[in-house]
Amino acid sequence: MATMISEVYKAFIVAGVPEDDAREAAEALSAENLATKSDLQRLGTRFDSVAAQVNLLRWMVGFNLAFTMAVLWKLLS
């Protein structure tokens, strides 16, 4: 049998969740299944690097678009 957090189980029962569903939800939220602080920090670091890459791609697309428009303007005028 999996461990569960009794406070979460009681909160689900008070909220009107059926007992079987409350037990399964409390087991799913047990400490073994939760992310640790270091896991969250590692994810934050990854998202920071992804944000930097997206920012770089935005600048690259913007420059490419401006350059293409300048070339088309020169050719068509």
Query: Taking all residues together, what is the mean pLDDT?
Result: 84
**Helix share, percent:** over 70%
> Approximately what portion of the residues adopt beta-strand conformation?
under 5%
Low-confidence stretches: none
What's the shape? elongated
Would you count the extended β strands for me? 0
Question: Structural class per helix/strand content?
Answer: mainly alpha
List the total number of helices.
3
Distance between the termini: 76 Å
- How many domains? The number is 2
* Major sheet details: none
Q: Output the radius of gyration.
A: 26 Å
Q: What assembly state would you assign to the polypeptide chains in this entry?
A: single chain
What is the H/E string? HHH
